[in-house]
Design goal:
It is found in: Cell membrane. The protein has 296 residues and is mostly helical. The protein contains 13 helices and no strands. It has one domain.
Length: 296
Amino acid sequence: MGLDLIYILKAIFIAIVEGLTEFVPVSSTGHMILFGSLIGFHNGGPGAQEFASMFEVVIQLGAILAVVVLYWKKLSGAISEFFIFIFTGGKKGQTGFKFGINVIIASMPALIMGLLFYKSIKSLFKPSAVVVGFIVGGILLLVIENRFRNKTSKSGKKPTVDVFDLTPMQSLKVGCFQVLAMWPGMSRSASTIMGGWISGISTPVAAEFSFFLAIPAMIGSSGLDLFKFDYSIMNPTYAVALIAGFVVAFIVSLVVMEMFISYLQKKPMRIFAIYRIIAGIVLLGLSLTGIVTLTM
């Protein structure tokens, strides 16, 4: 069986979309679903629907690899300290251990919800749900940023400016907000950053913690999809598409992450919120007028 080069090009296009949107608060999953529907990525042949659903989750591991590369020194140091703390009975490595516990705490809400409601969550992966997520998430982003971003609390406590200084309660709040991202279109990045603002975390640190939380979140969701995937439908075209998508998503994400952090240090995120709301309203209008169909 020969390779379907057109389908592979479509996969690369979706991977570029993933890399551009994974770490900015506009929902990478939502954009992949919308663009995939637009170019017929889910209709490429036998098993295309099942493969596309798996592909849109698994290539996010490419984006996660970009986090590991960009933050390798900080991550490797924290992981080393985590185990040093355990092996020395808490005499050394307190900072890394605290960070590791915070990541675990923040990851638990999404892990529990994902295991309990996997089928229900996957049933939401369609354009109509994405439009709702775009609009609702955009409005929340505007409201919460205006109310909480970089604000000093009533008690006079300033926002946390170091990811290693987060408290377990702050981590839990961020983790609870991450659950919102299970609705496609809400955006995991936006959800966790909003949770960070409400928890009293500065914007760059909230974004950085969001990057770190993406590692267990994406490994977990990708692992679950790979485990449940029907490999009898896999063919050479799908295999090449998956590998190419992974590599492209990694390269694009690596560039975007650095640009996004630089942007957050200087400017607010309302531009992303406005984009989401406008995009959602336009898509809803196109649907109501019958120009496009928002169901799959």
